[in-house]
Every structure is written in C-alpha cells, then in structure tokens.
Amino acid sequence: MKPDESPESAVLRAVREELGSVAGGEVRIVPGSYREKVEERYSASYPGLPARYVLYSVDAIVDGLPDGDFCTEEAEEYGESEEKKVADQAVTVRKHFWTWVSPDTVEL
User: Fold this and answer.
1) Which residues pair with 47 in a beta bridge?
2) Three-state secondary structure along the chain?
3) I need a surface site. Which of 2, 10, 65, 87 has the fewest CB within 10 A?
4) Measured distance CA(34)–CA(87) in Å, rounded
C-alpha cells in the first residue's frame, strides 16, 4: 500500500496495475475477507537488519477476466524520467502469464 492509501483503494490500484486492460469489468472486495499478517524477520535485502513486514490480503471478484489462461504486459510506469533511466538498468519482467488454479491449492 502507498502512504495514505486505504486498503480498498490499494486493491483497485493493484488489480489495474497487474491485470491492465484484461480486467475491464467491476472489481468487488468480498465482505469479511480482509486479512492482515505481520512477519518479523531479517531483511532479505539487507542481511542482519531486523524487519517488520505487514501483509494485507483480500478476496476480490473481478468481472470480465478470460475463462482460460491469459497473459498481460506491463505498461511504461515512469515515462521519460530519471526513475526510468534507473529502472531500465534493472532486470524486469514485462509480460506475465496467468493460469487458473483450484482454490484449495492456494496457501494463505
């Protein structure tokens, strides 16, 4: 979540960012599905640094998704900026492949 962003706004933004134009329909959060999980462990990025991660999850209904496997491509996030110059040097994934799985195979 971004600073000052509500969980509901974060869900809508995340769905738009991850699924792009594939998710052309309405996005609804399933009532009562909001969960918060706190993990305290050492940072993977900075070995030896204690870190506290607060993870949020919700179940959402996203109208308009394909019935079968599909793929999405990331749009340019930074435009022509200094951030883009730095981002271009990183290894990134621009195309994502999605497949449906049975709900009982997902660990939360």
Assistant:
1) none
2) CCCCCCHHHHHHHHHHHHHHHHCCCCEEECCCCCEEEEEEEECCCCCCCEEEEEEEECCEEECCCCCCCEEEECCCCCCCCHHHHHHHHCCCCCEEEECCCCHHHCCC
3) 2
4) 32
